[in-house]
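in:
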């Protein structure tokens, strides 16, 4: 098997998870390099990695570069992706900077893997909340067609980065110690014993950028701009793993049982749907997993072709690192 020179750019929560996923999935690596803004040594699962300072010449001899990216910020890929491409490297970017460019494929392998072949040097990794939703909905869309989606997300603080995790843990420690939390807030609001409907920045129409990502990215990935999509994205005091309550209206009738059976045999999905015995997907059970978990599948008694689904997935893994590595695997397959 041919092996590849791989670079990971960024050593935040997603970057570290990329290093972990590459090893766990036995990616065919000849040489692995890690880059960030400054030199340092990091340890992931007991293994040390030397982090080098990123420059244009960092991509000399690199075959595939995984940019960890940061939601809501201009990522390193804006500056360095063109330099990497010049040197013959394929860039897979987890940030939002390239996702909606017409010449950049936006890929979830379970949904639109063939789009990888259309790349011109860069492939975009979708937003975490979009990824898990389209994995669950695509099999239903292919079977009966979806004409409307209403999504409410319950997004973990890890989606906002390591500092948000630190804020959450610090607030709960302060509460337990009956002491004030005096550190600056990394997130928009206090999170302990709280939820807030504010992820990203607000648009003039009252929607947020996170909500509109789910609209535009879903259209692009599923190749269907006619689906009517509305979303409300909410930050919740969960350390890791996003959950979503998703309502769909289908073009053709589909029973809950038929949807359950269809999802059960679809790649990348695990159905846990036994509410009578209190069995349904929960963040505490899905952290560290690569699959998308679906439960609470039920028809809407008020709408003929309406269905509800509860969709849960690890936002650092399938929602970011794992999906990026899966894209890299598809790049390798496309070369055979």
């Amino acid at each position: 098997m041919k092996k590849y020179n791989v670079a990971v750019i960024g050593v935040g929560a997603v970057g570290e998870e990329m290093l972990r996923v590459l090893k766990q999935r036995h990616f065919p690596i000849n040489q692995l390099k890690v880059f960030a803004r400054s030199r340092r040594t990091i340890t992931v699962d007991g293994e040390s990695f030397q982090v080098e300072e990123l420059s244009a010449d960092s991509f000399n001899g690199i075959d595939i570069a995984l940019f960890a990216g940061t939601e809501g910020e201009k990522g390193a890929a804006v500056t360095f992706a063109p330099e990497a491409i010049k040197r013959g490297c394929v860039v897979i970017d987890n940030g939002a900077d390239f996702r909606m460019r017409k010449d950049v494929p936006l890929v979830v392998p379970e949904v639109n893997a063939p789009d990888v072949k259309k790349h011109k040097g860069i492939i975009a990794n979708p937003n975490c909340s979009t990824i898990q939703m389209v994995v669950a909905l695509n099999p239903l869309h292919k079977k009966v067609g979806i004409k409307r989606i209403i999504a409410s997300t319950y997004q973990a603080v890890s989606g906002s980065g390591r500092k948000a995790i630190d804020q959450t843990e610090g607030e709960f420690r302060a509460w337990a110690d009956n002491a004030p939390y005096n550190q600056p807030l990394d997130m928009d609001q206090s999170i302990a014993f709280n939820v807030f409907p504010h992820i990203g920045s607000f648009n003039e129409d009252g929607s947020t950028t996170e909500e509109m990502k789910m609209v535009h990215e879903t259209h692009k990935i599923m190749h269907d701009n006619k689906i009517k999509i509305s979303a409300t994205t909410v930050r919740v005091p969960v350390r890791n793993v996003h959950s979503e309550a998703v309502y769909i209206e289908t073009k053709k009738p589909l029973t809950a049982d038929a949807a359950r059976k269809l999802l059960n045999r679809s790649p990348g999905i695990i159905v846990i749907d036994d509410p009578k015995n209190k069995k349904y997907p929960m963040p505490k059970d899905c952290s560290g997993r690569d699959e998308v978990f679906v439960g609470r599948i039920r028809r809407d008694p008020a709408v003929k072709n309406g269905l509800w689904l509860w969709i849960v997935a690890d936002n650092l893994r399938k929602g970011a690192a794992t999906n990026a590595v899966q894209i890299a695997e598809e790049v390798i397959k496309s070369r055979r």
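note: The radius of gyration is 20 Å.
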